[in-house]
Structure formats: C-alpha cells, structure tokens
Amino acid sequence: MNPPPLLLNTVRQCLWLLASCSTLSGIAIAADLPRRTPIVLPRNPSVILIIAEGLGYGQLGCYGQTFIQTPNLDRMAAEGVRFTDYYAGSPLCPASRYALMTGLRATHNPNQGIHSGVLGAKDWTVASMLKQAGYTTAAFGTWALGDSGSEGTPSRKGFDESFGFLDQTHAMEAHPVFLWRNGSRMNLPQNEGDKKAIYANDFFTQAAVNFIQSNVKKPFFLYLAYALPEHKEGLPNVTPYGGEKWSQANKTRAAMITRLDKDVGILLGKLKDLRMDRDTAVFFTSDHGPGAHEGKEPELFRSTGPYRGGNGNLFEGSIRVPLIARWPAQIKAGGVIVHPAAAWDIAPTAVEIANMGSPTGVDGVSLMPLLRGGRVKNREPFYWELPSKTNRVQAIRSGHWKAVREDPQGPLQLYDLRHDPGERQSVAEANPEIAAQLNELIAKARR
Fold first, then answer.
1. What is d(CA 255, CA 259) in angstroms, rounded to the nearest whole number?
2. In this predicted structure, what is the pLDDT of residue 409?
3. What are the distances in angstroms from CA 408 to CA 148, 431, 439?
4. 118 and 236 assigned to the same domain
5. Average pLDDT, whole number, for the chain?
6. Containing domain of residue 429, as a range?
C-alpha cells in the first residue's frame, strides 16, 4: 500500500528543511577555551565520528561475529584499521559521550557529578576547537549532554547545526513525535497517535548525507550518534532475519545492527560518490557495551566477544567496545591496533587531524601516531567509576593489568589481561605488589 500524498508531502518538506537550513545562532565558547594557531593548508581533512548506542565488542563481523551481517563496517575495517583494546568513557551513555566531546575522563566532569555527562559553561568541546580552524560542524542523533535551555546544548558547544534528541530517555523513542533542530522543537505530526511514519535513525542518516553534500568544498566535523542498536522496540522490520529460528528479541537485535551497518554504508558511499572519502577521516565506535535487557542474545551472538560482563559494571564486556578508523590518505588499510586507547583520545585526535597541534588540559592523547603505525608512549592509566548502593565501583587499567573494586570496602580484584582477558580469576593474592601499586593508582586517579 502506497503512503497517502499528504504524508509524502510532509516527509518531503521535512527532508527539504534538513537539506536547506543551517544554524545561524551564536556559538558560546568559554573564555578559557584552549587556543591554537591553525596550520594553513589548501583544505583540512574532514572528520566524521559515528557513535552506536550499546553495541558490544563482539557484534560486528570484523570482531568475530558470525550470525549478524555487517558488510559495510567490515569493509570499513578492511580499508582502515580496527582497535582491539579500545575503551568507552563509561558504561553510562551521557558520561561516555562527555569523554568523547571533551577529551576528559568522566570522573573529571565538574558540573553535575561524574555520571551525568552534562556539559557546563566552561567545558570546551572538540567542535568548539575545530571551529577555530574554520570547520563547519554538525551534531545529529542522540546528544544527552544538555537539555534545552541549558549551557550544554549543541549550539552552545560549537555546533553550527544540530538535529535529534537532547535527552537520553527521549532517544529511546524510535518514532518520536518531535525532535530538536538547532535549539527549536520540530514537531513530527506524522508520528502522532502511535503512527510510525518516520523512523528517527533514517532521518539522521538523511540529515548527515545532506550535510556532507553541502560541505564538499570546505572541511567539516560531523558527529552522528545513532540510537541503534539500543532501541528496544519500533524497528520497522527484522530484515534479513525474519526466517531465523531465533527469539523475536534476537531477530530485532540483529536487524538493528544490520540496519546501523546499512546507514554507515550509505555515508561511506556518499563520500566516495563525491570523491571526498580519501580526505575524510571516519571513526566508528560505541558509547558502551550491550545492556542486560537483551535476554538470551549474549549467549547466541556472544555480544561481548570473549569478555565478561555487560553494560552496568566495569568488567571488559561493559567498557571494551569496537573502534574502527578509515582515512585512506593517512591510514594504511587492513591494520589491527592492539595498543590501548579510550574515548577521551578521540577529541585530541580530531584536533590533530585539523592541524591544530595538541590541546592542553585534557586526559586523552592523539591516536595519530598509532594510526600511522607508530606508538603512544608514557600513557596515564585508564580509570573509571560507577555509582553503587554503597558508594562507587572502581576500575583501572595500567599496561596489561586491570583492577576492579566492586565495593569500596571490599577486596581489590586483579586480572592479567594477557592471560585472562575474560577476567575469570583474580590474581591479587599471587601478585600483592602489583595489587598495591594499582590500589595507589586508584587513589591518585580520584584526586
């Protein structure tokens, strides 16, 4: 059955608005924003950062998945590099995105606690920085870093254009009745009354394509944050898994990941069509590991790969996630990077790609040496915290050693990730000196 003409006209009008409008509102940049003198080049590379919601380490073919089809992301990894030891900023979505945007660990968020992810007036973002180098910037999809009217909205954090969900809870609506565009509410009457005319993630892909097409001749930074595969319902169909003898939940989960893969393929294809792919650095990652709501899915798909845990704790399965980078002009195809990296490294990496040197006062480091086949030396340990009923859960990684404390008054669990990547057996008693050293590092990291 064909959609009614009125519905088609409404959709066309919305897509036309996405293609033609641009934000002209002022951008609030903190007075203490780190500044660098850009290196003048004919054209700086563009940067695209694509974020999945709750995608596990083992849910892509290039990371060992055998049931779920992800041909575009697998090809992206083959044409670029994939990281084996990349960590999310937090198991909590807003806090993890805070690390991506600022280059800071979530534990260094001074605004509303380390778990809120809210951006404050003095927080600089990677978008704010790149605007100094003449980049056009856009944020599409899930924001979760500041609601309407706050200091943390995209337009106040360096983005020329924004479209999507500001609130994380709102982002779980697959067919929303409104979205936020450039700070203003944009109603979607097509979805009112439980209608499902527009699937939000398709809208964001179209917005990204329009943005790329409008910036062919100038560098841009695109932050594209999908709610896939975290959506619990609302997927238009479960193609191509309708005939599988799986639970409906498993079919839906697999279909959401394949649909996400299709969207990434559309963007990569558009870059090639416009002859922009060689000089555009594209990064793909997830904000955290898969959630517990997936039922039996982890046993079928092995969503966290060989790692223990899932979203809501600080074991590897919750915070170790995929990171794929593709940039033909600079990155040799087919590489695998085993050196540890984290979400707070993404912002410094983008700043270096924009030829602005290295930002000061951040926790992350640029990954460009790794992407070019080198090494990053003298890294600070990675540290995470989570709220708990008693106080907090803590974890730290230093070299190949990982320590987890699930209770502030309880014992420190110590794991040697070289021999026990699944964190099955604590070796704290057999390595008291290492345990004591990591215990001191945790105390230091909290200061």
1. 6
2. 77
3. 36, 20, 11
4. yes
5. 87
6. 388-445
